[in-house]
Amino acid sequence: LQVPHAPSQPPAGNESRRFTNKHSKKALKASLTLGILLGMFFVAWLPFFITNVAQAVCGCVPAGFFDVLTWLGYCNSTMNPIIYPLFMRDFKRAMGKFLPCCRRSAEPRPSAISLSMRNSNSGPRAAASLKNVL
Predict the structure, then answer these.
(1) Is 13 part of a structural domain of the chain?
(2) Total structural domains within the chain
(3) At what angle do helices 124-133 and 112-119 cross, to 10 degrees?
(4) What is the pLDDT of residues 73-109, one digit of tens each?
(5) For the chain: N or C, fewer Cβ within 10 A?
(6) What is the C-alpha to C-alpha distance for residues 105 and 126, in angstroms, rounded to an integer?
(7) Rounded to 10 degrees, what is the CA torsion of 41, 46, 47, 53?
(8) How far apart are CA 74 and CA 47, in angstroms?
(9) C-alpha to C-alpha distance for 57 and 105, rounded to whole angstroms
(10) Is residue 63 part of a domain?
């Protein structure tokens, strides 16, 4: 006795399939970015922490080697601003608004007053009081 196989997607499933595919691509990209960031973190800092524990236990780590591993960890911090814009469009767009080297010529530079207004929740009253202070 065989049961007929029902289709898993409804006839209008093309849109939902596209929606799912778009989100799965975003999730895959986010996972890849997170994997790279964590991988870089472990490659840079794990030797430092292992050496730090070894130094506390036996005192057998040369000072120069310990300094090299410390600077390897510091280099990880310099890699984050490079990795984020490579893999995250939103981060790149946000940084482009504030850094003059990355801004497009059509985009005006935000003023300090407009930034403070955007970040505050007090509305137009803050602008009036800010003008009185200036």
Answers:
(1) no
(2) 1
(3) 140
(4) 998 888 877 877 777 777 778 877 877 776 565 555 5
(5) N
(6) 30
(7) 150
(8) 12
(9) 58
(10) yes
